[in-house]
From TrEMBL, chain B:
Protein name per the record: ABC transporter related protein
Superkingdom, natural source: Archaea
Sections of the chain in a coiled coil: 208-235
Protein family (similarity comment): Belongs to the ABC transporter superfamily.
Biological source species: Candidatus Parvarchaeum acidiphilum ARMAN-4
Amino acid sequence: MAYSNVHPKEISRMSEIAISFKYQLKSYLRTKRFIALAILVALISIAVFAVEAHAGVNVINAEYSNASNYLYSFMQNITFVVVILAAFFGGNAISTDFASNYSYYILVQPARRSSLLIGRYIAALLASFSIILIYYLFAAIASFYFFGTLPLVFASSIGLVALFVLSILSFAFFLSSLFNNPQTSTVAVVILLIVALPIASSVLQGFLSVQPWFLVNYGGQVVYTIFSTHFVHFSQVVIPTKGAKFTITQYEPYTLEGIEIMLGYIIIFFLASIFMYNYKEVKN
Amino acid sequence: MEIKVNNLTKRYPSKLALDNISFYHKGKGVIGYLGPNGAGKTTTFKILAGLLKPTSGSVFIDGFDVTKNLKKVLLNVGAVIESPEPDKFQTIKEALTMSGEFRGLSKEDINHQIDKYGKLLELPPLNLRTGRLSKGQRQRVSLVAALIPEPSILLLDEPTSGLDPAERIKFKKLILSLKKDRLILISSHVIQEIKEVCDEIIFINNGKLLKEDSVKNLQKKYKDLERAYLKIVGD
């Protein structure tokens, strides 16, 4: 068994990231969850469009008056879809290594852990984004069908949703680094992003009149508020009750504000994920 | 081909896994790392491969500090520790190709190496997903992955676990062939396996290095390795 002509050599960081990305994306695209989520999002989009089409163009025109108002409403569900996708593609991104013996295969490769993670991150973005585009595709079809036009901000919304996916993925990657069990980390991400953060946001705004500038789901609202034709950053509704007035406050983020919040989450939580991934030891 | 371990200590919250271990080996050959379950064998291998960080002490492989130059170390080290599991959605071919790509090998070289070691270790069809493989098959895939870059140093921690008797025999032949131009550190708690392939043996128990000697000397001194093991490590 003499040596052959094979001589390993160091590859660049970009190559490491590209290899990690390539194989991770292939894996994501082969998972049942990817196929199931793509079908689910397509079905939901078709169902919404079908119900509205059944109601008739005139009814939709009368209700929303223009394409922007229509898309403002249509796109409100997208934040929920993003959170679900990111939870499923990012919720176990790190924990899965340490729960299975995959770490003994992948972490003995001569590649920086940060490169492996960046590759995974980009793969998760693409896997999630490809499903989100299904929703956007139906939104565009619906806009043309009912109003014969597509507002220019539609393209901006696609850019914003990409930022939102990245920010939620960063958060999900970080949470997954805190757990050693992929199921637990995925459930934790789902509960936190779908239940805890929206409740926190509602309570802070509605009852305490606090602007939740530090919550990513608040910042992510720019994905649909960008379609708003009569944007109101701050509004209050006074509800008279017996003996006292009850005030409910609502904030909507400015576009720049939303971008800043999302960028903050991307940077802080992705760097924290890399730190945690580098720091973690394969103990079990 | 050089492994240098200096005063290596690993402390877990509830246990001292390695207690000031030192050893040094240069040049080709097979070094057996022998000890009972829980002795600290896997912990040592994990530190050598950068999967764990030492509490104190240092490890140098081919002159590179494992904690500071892990990428350079792993470029020339093939490691099979515990029972590695490639990504279950990858095919065998993809898992092996990825391993070659991380080492900068060309497509032709990777295919050549997969063919060479795949035949030798009788891998299942390469288009099978690794998630469908048995433990023994996954172990063989991991071995091929470790061998693809023709590393000069191999770290094999209980590499025969999961292999059936016929596969163990083939594996033994492979090690005997590989040792001609490589330094191989191999752990086991099966004395027979170690005896057949090793040139030197390190005995370890309770995180302490108990003895290090050549197989020849040990057999001369204790008559056979089983007896040496019992005398050095205990029952």
